[in-house]
Amino acid sequence: MTKIKTAAAVPGKSGNPVALFKMLLAAGALLLVGGAVWYVAITGIVGLKDWDYVKYGLAPTIAAALGGAILILDIAAYFFLPCFKEASAPLKHDLKQDKIRYLLILPGIVLVSIFNYIPMYGIVLAFKDYKIKSGILFSEWCGLENFTRFFGRSVAGNVILNTLFIGVTQLIITFPVPIILALLLNELRSKKFRSAIQSTIYLPHFVSWIIMYSLLFSLFSVTSGMVNKLLMSMGLSSINLLSDPDMFYGMLYGTSIWKEAGWGTIIYMAAITGVDEEMYEAAYLDGANRFQRCLYITLPSIAFVVTTMLILNVGSVMGANFDQIMNLRTDATKNTVAQVIDTYVYDMGVEKGQYDLATAIGLFQQGVNCILLFISNFVVKKLSGEGFF
């Protein structure tokens, strides 16, 4: 007698319980997130004065509630229905076997949720006319007014362009340095000497930016700096390095390399140690010199790590190093070459108390960073075949 396969037994078909579970899981998540975003967006656009819950808020609420219900029922079905018994067995086994590890992870998940995800509610400030007395919840919605306020200011264009300029040039100048350092360290034959060099170049990372600026001030201050005192004792004129706008970018790139290049070599050194030594030996026997072994073995072997770091760095081009720039800027540079989005957000939010405007600017910045992350991943994946996701 011929056995007939049921749809549930055929992997990949619509009748497959696991495939159905995944489809419902995706649909539930999409409805939940989409409904929440829809609700926030429509309330921001319509505004509190013209708000009608039945007309504007009911549909996204139903969508989000439906999505949440689908997620809960779908996950419950996965663990308790007989048709998922075989599929959920490995997960149940893992949960039972590694329950101590999952319990150890739980505090981290709770902390991340409390300090990273729950504060995201503050994003709604970007769409509100925030009043301290009313608070975030009861302040009136103002739609996209905060965004138009920012883009309508004459300083907006200069701030955005300066942020992009610093981000792109700093990426081009500083990104290759840790890779080159890691390749050079890998060529050192003495392990003790290599360890000593590594420890030395790691140390600046642990120096805070305020301490770093104190070192610069003690060296290059016009009145009391060691360098300027030496120049004046030789009959030469002093240099105003810290307050000269023309020197700001060079000082920015130089301090970035000095402080972070050594620390950045860690991930590349870890990748290099995973390269098979037999490949180097075979290349040596074939007559390849050190440079050729580095070029044709080491670099291709760590290409995935390099592309991953490049994608992550491109995704933060609009996020210039706030701590660094805040400490390096002076009265002569704070409104010109040292004015970037992060410092402008600080000026508007912390100094002037315009929290709604500062939130809108920050949201715009992170939106651009997110777009750049996806674009860089797409381009790198097309060119090299390897991407971050």
UniProtKB/TrEMBL annotation:
Record domain ABC transmembrane type-1: where: 160-376
PROSITE patterns from the entry?
ABC_TM1
Q: Which domain of life is it from?
A: Bacteria
| Compartmental location | Cell membrane
Q: Where is the signal peptide?
A: none
What cellular-component terms does GO give this entry?
plasma membrane
Q: Which UniProt keywords apply?
A: Cell membrane, Membrane, Transmembrane, Transmembrane helix, Transport
- GO BP annotations, alphabetical order: transmembrane transport
| Residues that span the membrane, as ranges | 20-42, 62-81, 102-127, 159-185, 206-227, 247-273, 294-312, 357-380
Q: Name one Pfam family in it.
A: BPD_transp_1
* Membrane topology field: Multi-pass membrane protein
Q: Please verify whether the record's keywords include rRNA processing.
A: no
Primary location recorded for the protein, binned into one broad class? membrane
Which family does the record assign? Belongs to the binding-protein-dependent transport system permease family.
Record-given protein name: ABC transporter permease subunit
- What is the organism of origin for this protein? Candidatus Eisenbergiella merdipullorum
Q: What is the lineage of its organism?
A: Bacteria, Bacillati, Bacillota, Clostridia, Lachnospirales
